[in-house]
Amino acid sequence: MIVSISSISNMTTTYVPRSSQKVSPSFAKEQSIAKTCSPNTKMDIYKQIAQDYDVRNASFDEFCKITDKLYDKGEISGIEHALVTLDIQPLQKIYPNCRYYLTKANQNGKRDWIAEIEARVQQDEKIGNAPQGIIAHKRIIDVLMHLQRK
Q1: What is the CA radius of gyration of the chain?
Q2: Angstrom distance (rounded) from CA 63 to CA 55
Q3: Are 55 and 114 in contact (CB under 8 A)?
């Protein structure tokens, strides 16, 4: 999947995937629809989320709420949302040595999610993972950078 972003004067166009007819019994076909927002609307969304959450110091549950809001507002796609909010706790019960997170959480279980996703990009590039995942992670980092508290 390729996500395209283009800017013309004061308008930004974001392509958001939308599920449609099934291609096969197990996979849904994704189509893109265009959604246009003014930069001021986008900044209001980022400002509101940043007031409620610190993306550099958030628990997994808080991060899920952040990405839910970004997805609901069309700032990230469903695939991007799923990519960064995979809940591995059930897997860790079966495989206790499974290590998914690349950065350490603090004593309260909070972590810097921008640093976490940047570490995933570095790991993906190092081991040669699919470019689509790397592109998606980099796009998510770009969106999360707007949420940093000053």
Answers
A1: 16
A2: 7
A3: yes
